[in-house]
Amino acid sequence: MALYKVKSLFQLGNQIQPLLITQCDKFHTTSDLSAWSRNSGPKRWLKYNDVIYPPQSPDEEPRPAFVCHQRTNIKYSPWKMWYIASLVRGMSVDEAIKQLKFVLKKGSKDVMEVIEEARELAIKEHNVQYGTNLWVAESFVGKGQVIKGMRRHGRMRHGLVRYFHCHYFVRLEEGTPPKDYYMHAPKEPSQQLQEWLEEMRKRKIINSL
Amino acid sequence: MSLRLLNKVGIQFLQETSVNFLAPIASTSINVQQVRHRRTKHWDPKWKPLRTLKVVKVELPKFNENTEDLTEEEMRSRLKEQGLLPPRPWLEKPFFISSTGGVFEGYVPPEGDGKVSPISAQGAKQKLQFLEKKSKTMLAIRKIRSFEEDFDTPEFCKAAQNVYIKMHECMASGDKETIQQYITERAYPEVMHNMKNKTIRWKYLKDVELPRVVHARCTDVVSKENIFAQVTVRFHTQQVLAIYDRFGRLMHGSEIIAKDVLEYVVFEKHLANEYGLWRVHDKIIPDWMPPKEPTSLTFEKPQLNIIESKEKELVDKEKKPAEIAA
Predict the structure, then answer these.
(1) What ipTM did this prediction achieve?
(2) Predicted local confidence at residue A148, as pLDDT
(3) Which of A18, B134, A21, A19 is nearest to A7 (CA)?
(4) Does A143 touch chain B (CB under 8 A)?
């Protein structure tokens, strides 16, 4: 908009005042000022799609394919979106879409769409053969632009209204989902017993034979 | 001491009362509806419009809107709202034609080329046909000579092979800048698409047959003097090719198997341009050759029913004498 105004000034200047032209020349309209411009959103997440890994020898285990995908500035609270993002973590894609259909939240629609888009991308560009053979390896939320509004209070005062936007990021990986997505999954009783036994056998009894 | 006692008694009392309080509710299942009482709103709805006025309406930008989907009328009203002039269409379009958009009068390779020997009937027939078609090619070569005086077909074949090898080496190393010297503008997007997200290992081993010019054509674009020449060269070579996908998994070929490759490569040069280069323009894939399917990553596990049944028979045979014995 500012640039536009400057342009119109230029046109005026051409017709009437040569002094104004010299003034216009001193306006900065280039990227010098863009240091203060708005952040243009997340940039790094999609860069992972450009990484090319070195070829593997036939005896190595094949690297699972993955795709990163995102949707920026969804008009939804990032704090509310978090619940939906955490829900689908570690699910297979089909299961995630099925579950999201029953989530009665506004953000679930966007999450579902992003996952479906990512799946299509995987088949189209990243050499994934079956769309069903994918799972949600990463799913998280970022804070987007916050637009500030105003609200009248009593006694000549005012309050700030924040209109939040959020980013949603997803990474689909080829293969079947792991049994325990989170590391701190509870251990089986037999496993616990085994560990305890080992611990007991390892201990050192001081001053003993 | 007394304080501690008091505390103990107090806790006990609390515990007891809480149990007593909860007990009737838990035991008798009364259908209690939750009612939310909001104390910040006035009970009289006449203040409702004034309450809405308290919030200053902000028009939020539509971040995820696809502007291409908007109709012209919508776009006009948007621009009008913001007080912007519609963008002026830029009528001048400077463009420089440095390559043609396709192959003109493309060469049709004979069926079974590279497999049929010239001694057989079919091979001899091919040779005859090849001679017949040569007159137009000779004319085109004469035209090329009028621009490029020292144009010599065997010399050209050597240069063409060099360009061919350089182009593939650039593809393998992913060099987007230097490859422009070896491929035309028509081939560029195609090559870039084939390179995308891949690791290519390519090696040229040797010639099976010497490369030879099979076809040549000239055409003019826009004006009479603006001439482009296309020469088709037959390459019968031995190469090694392995293509890996983005994750380093083998997609096609192998790094240890050498294969004979028969290719018809069209080279193009802008003759009218003093600094024109012979560059790879296209590869001719004949209609009679079926398109190859990409290699699949996963395979269906074959069912081994037949062997199982045989095993069963064997087991049965072993069992039967045992039963008889019993």
Answers:
(1) 0.73
(2) 94
(3) A21
(4) no
